[in-house]
Each structure stands twice: as C-alpha cells, then as structure tokens.
Write a structure and sequence with these properties.
Protein name: Transcriptional regulator, LysR family
Pfam family, one: LysR_substrate
CATH superfamily of the largest domain: Periplasmic binding protein-like II
Shape: globular
Number of strands: 12
Keywords: DNA-binding, Transcription, Transcription regulation
InterPro entries: LysR_HTH_N (IPR000847), LysR_subst-bd (IPR005119), WH-like_DNA-bd_sf (IPR036388), WH_DNA-bd_sf (IPR036390)
Strand content: 15-25%
GO molecular function: DNA binding; DNA-binding transcription factor activity
Oligomer: single chain
CATH architecture of the largest domain: 3-Layer(aba) Sandwich
Mean pLDDT: 91
Radius of gyration: 24 Å
CATH class of the largest domain: Alpha Beta
C-alpha cells in the first residue's frame, strides 16, 4: 500500500478517541464525517490493527486503540512543547518550565523557588497551574507538566518524588469559638464537632492521614463537608458549619473570620513533595531541580 502515516492521522485519531463519536470529532476538526471515517480506516489499514469498535449505538476503543491513545497524547503534547521551546531558545532563553502545584505550595516553597530562579536563572520562563494531586500525576505522565508539587507518598515508577517541605497541622475554627491559643490542648477537644476536610479526591493518602490524627486521639470525626479548595473549607468554617484540619502554612494569605490553632502532641506531618518525570528531557528542568 502506498499510503504512509502522517501527523494528521494522529490528530484525527486522537479526536475520535477523545469524543468516541465520529460526528462530534468531525465537527471539532472542521471536516466531514465521511472524510474522517476514511482517514481512520486508512490509518487502521496502514497499521494493520483495529483501533475502534463501531456499532449503531456507540464507538469504543480496542485494546490497541487504548494503548495508542495514551502514547499519542504524549507525542502530541511533547511535539507542541518542543516547538514552543525551540522558539524560546532562539531568543536566548533556556526555555520554559511548566509547574503544577497545590494551593499550599504557593503558601510555602514555590514563591521562594521562583524568586531564586528569577535571580539565578533569568533565562528560564515559567507557566504555573494549580491542580489537584491526581491531575498533576496525569499531566506529568502526558508531558503536559515538567514539575509538580503534591502531597503523595506513592507515585508511578516513572516519576520521581523529593520531599521539599515538612509542615505541622493546625485546627481551623470560627473566630468566636471558645477554644484559643491559651486553652487548646489537643484535637480531642473538638471530637463532637462536625468536620470539614479536604476530599479524598485531593489525595486519599492525605485524607487518611487527617483521619489518623483524630483516631490516634480516640475518636472518628463526623465529616459533613469535603472540598479540594482551602478557600471553600475556610468559608464553611467561618459560616459555623464545622471545624477543619489543614497544613499550618496554608493559613497564610487568607483574611477571613476563622482562627488557626497548631495541633500539639501529634506525630503526623504534612509533607510537600516535588514530583517530576524521570526521563523528562526539558533542558530547563535540571537547574530548577538543583535549586530545590
């Protein structure tokens, strides 16, 4: 067969793999549906594999198609970023480092890192995106991020973890709560209160650690609200809907009707980790890792 795979084939494949609907994918690509179907059939013929299972009701990926989608995601993202980096290098820059982070990283280590980088490595540019733990892991694996800041102790083998900041935990209370710095002796004093916690979607390991703080003191907290955003948690506490447990550094930068009491006599610590892909080829990343 005289046909060869071209970049457009992969773009067409990815659109159908994401939409799992030929008409929607064709509209997204601004081509006709029959034309898209022909391109996908041509790609399958060239590869000699079936990528999609089609019937009258739905489109789904085959095992081969699922594998190819994951790899094409990486290839397309890496190609787009490589072209962008090439333009930056032409201007004398070392390139761009794409950083994902949790909100607490912006209250602790990230500003210091960026200040140091601006002084010592002014040729490097940055793009920043606040993302949950799981979203950062996925983006790193797809080559959409170079560096993440997460609260995870276990990650896929192709990623590298480095602890960069260890924090204590604090109790968040409404401003008018009876407990204060003078009479607060332990988390068991709020054992009958409702708790507002970071969702397990934020990090199941982190959620378990928060629960263990309470369970070590002899009670299981009644969790009535969960969120992945600190601001939402603080607003719920301010409204009198419960109390919360957070990394102590997360209190910085917020001015709300709440107060923070560091929790004494516990062994648990909130560890913030830097996370990157072991085979990351961005030449601007190693100098930033050195600053950590």
């Amino acid at each position: 067969m005289g046909y060869q795979l071209e970049l457009r084939h992969f773009s067409y494949f990815l659109a159908v793999a994401e939409e799992l609907h030929f008409r929607k994918a064709a509209e997204r690509l601004y081509i006709s549906q029959p034309g898209l179907s022909r391109q996908i059939k041509q790609m399958e013929d060239i590869l000699g594999v079936k990528l999609f299972i089609r019937d009258k009701r739905k489109v789904s990926l085959t095992a081969a198609g699922t594998y190819l989608k994951k790899e094409v995601d990486y290839i397309i993202n890496h190609l787009e970023f490589t072209l962008k980096q090439t333009k930056l290098v032409q201007t004398g820059s070392l390139g761009e480092v794409r950083i994902g982070f949790l909100g607490s990283a912006m209250q602790s280590i990230l500003p210091d890192l960026l200040i140091k980088a601006n002084v010592q490595l002014p040729q490097i540019q940055f793009s920043l995106k606040e993302l949950a733990n799981s979203a950062q892991v996925e983006a790193l694996e797809k080559d959409q991020l170079d560096l993440g800041f997460v609260r995870l102790s276990r990650v896929p083998e192709n990623l590298q973890l480095k602890p960069v900041f260890t924090d204590t935990f604090s109790l968040v209370l409404p401003k008018e709560h009876v407990l204060n710095h003078m009479n607060f002796t332990g988390i068991e004093q709020v054992s009958t209160e409702h708790f507002i916690l970071f969702s397990s979607d934020y990090s199941s390991q982190y959620y378990d650690k928060i629960m263990s703080i309470c369970e070590d003191k002899g009670f299981t907290p009644v969790v009535t609200h969960r969120s992945v955003h600190a601001l939402t948690i603080f607003k719920l506490v301010e409204s009198g809907l419960g109390v919360a447990i957070i990394p102590t550094s997360l209190q910085k930068g917020f001015r709300m009707g709440v107060k923070f009491l560091e929790i004494p006599n516990i062994s648990q610590r909130a560890v913030l980790y830097a996370l990157w892909k072991k085979d990351n080829r961005n030449p601007a990343l190693p100098p930033i890792l050195d600053l950590l």
